[in-house]
Input
Amino acid sequence: MLLNQLKEGSWAVIDRVGGSGALRRRILEMGLLKGTRIYVEKYAPLKDPMELIVKGAHISLRVEEAAQISVLDVQ
Output
């Protein structure tokens, strides 16, 4: 499952970070690493960007960037 497919209020664990170059590096530098638990707090009114909580920090990520991240759904 991809990160952008999760609904608000969902927990997940990152399985793989795709992409390449500067985008992938930026995502990894924000703490979105394999095995990290994330919480989808909310989507903006027009569904882009989405707000995540990662290791206690609030992170906004574009939906197209979130499509590069594979996650395992955790309930």
About this structure: The chain has one domain: 3-74. The first strand starts at residue 11 and ends at 17. The helical segments are 21-29, 63-66.
